[in-house]
Amino acid sequence: MSGAMDQAAETVGRATGADEYSEGGEVSLRGLVTLAGVYAGGVGAFAWRTRASGRQLPERVPPLDLLLMGVATYRSSRLLTKDKVTSFLRAPFTRRAGSLHGAEVMDEPRGHGLHRSVGELLACPFCVAMWVASGLTMGYVAAPRATRLVVSCLSTVAVSDWLQYAWSLTQQKAED
Questions:
Q1: How many CA atoms lie within 13 A of 174 on its CB side?
Q2: What is the pLDDT along the chain (176 residues), one digit of tens a residue?
Q3: Nearest to 119 by CA among 28, 21, 25
Q4: Which of 65-102 are b and which e, b meaning 16 or more Cβ less than 10 Å from the residue's Cβ?
Q5: Cα–Cα distance for residue pair 72/106, rounded to 1 Å
Q6: What angle do CA 98, 21, 124 make, to 5 degrees?
């Protein structure tokens, strides 16, 4: 499979003029193709396994579950890409570029090729959100009760974060 992805990445590189795509060659189209292949392969394998097991997909997702999964995706993507406590996950692929509000940090990708592409993914909450949402959706199909419990916890943390920021704003206004 690695050979096929390498060949696809090389074809994309030739067809798109990857060398001219970005200044300084900082964007690795090969790395991005590899990550897209891993993502699509994982989702495809899950779909195949689900179908082979005879498990039925939910007919619909109730609005409350959708809301909880959305808030949990938001919180999880921030946790993975911005929280200090998960820096050890990003450190092999990123470097610290600064601090944000609260316990959040700003990391930037480093390295070249696939290494840099992973860094770009891990430094971007919007990019990671798709992976997280897909994982939560797969969990919702495979183990809905457990997934509801996890997304309820993550959603509670997100609401708590928002309340912490709201409290901080009221304190700043009271001091002014």
A1: 6
A2: 566 656 655 655 555 555 556 655 577 888 999 999 999 999 999 999 999 999 989 999 999 999 999 999 999 999 999 999 999 999 999 999 888 877 889 999 999 999 999 999 999 999 999 999 999 999 999 999 999 999 999 999 999 999 998 998 888 888 87
A3: 28
A4: beebbbbbbbbbbbbbbbbeeeeeebeebbeeeeeeee
A5: 21
A6: 30
First and final C-alpha spacing in the chain: 61
- How far apart, in Å, are the Cα atoms of 42 and each of 95, 99, 142, 161, 169? 28, 33, 14, 31, 42
pTM over 0.85: no
Give, to the nearest 10 degrees, the angle between helix 125-142 and helix 63-82.
130
Alpha helices in 54-112 (DSSP H): 63-82, 87-90
CB 121 within 8 A of CB 128: yes
Q: How far apart are CA 65 and CA 68, in angstroms?
A: 5
Distance CA 60, CA 141 (A): 11
Of 100, 95, 61, the closest CA to residue 83 belongs to 100
Question: Could you identify the residue written with the tokens 């592409």?
Answer: 117
